[in-house]
Amino acid sequence: MSVVTMSMGAYDEDEHERRERKNNTVDVSEDDDRTTYHGSVEYDSGDSAEALIDQFEEIKSGK
Is 39 strand, coil or helix? Predict the structure, then answer.
C-alpha cells in the first residue's frame, strides 16, 4: 500500500485548471444595468498638518 501526500501549498495542476475555467466563465444577465446615483459629497479637510503634528507630539509626550 502506498500513500501519496501533498504538503501545504503544494501545486495542484488539476485544481489550478479547474479554478481557471471557473473564473473565465462570466454569467451576464440582461438585467445587469448600472444604477445611476444622484447627489453630492461633502467632506471636512480637517486640521492643518502642523496642528496634527502638534497634537501627535502632545499625545506622544503624555500631556
Answer: coil
Q: Are 32 and 24 in contact (CB under 8 A)?
A: no
Half-sphere exposure of 30 (CA within 13 A, CB side): 0
The reported pTM is: 0.28
C-alpha cell at 42: 461633502
Q: What is the pLDDT along the chain (63 residues), one digit of tens a residue?
A: 666 665 666 778 888 888 888 887 777 666 667 778 889 988 877 778 888 899 999 999 986
Which triple of cell numbers denotes residue 25? 466563465
Burial tier of 25 (Cβ tally within 10 Å: 0-12, 13-18, 19+): exposed
- Cell digits of residue 14: 488539476
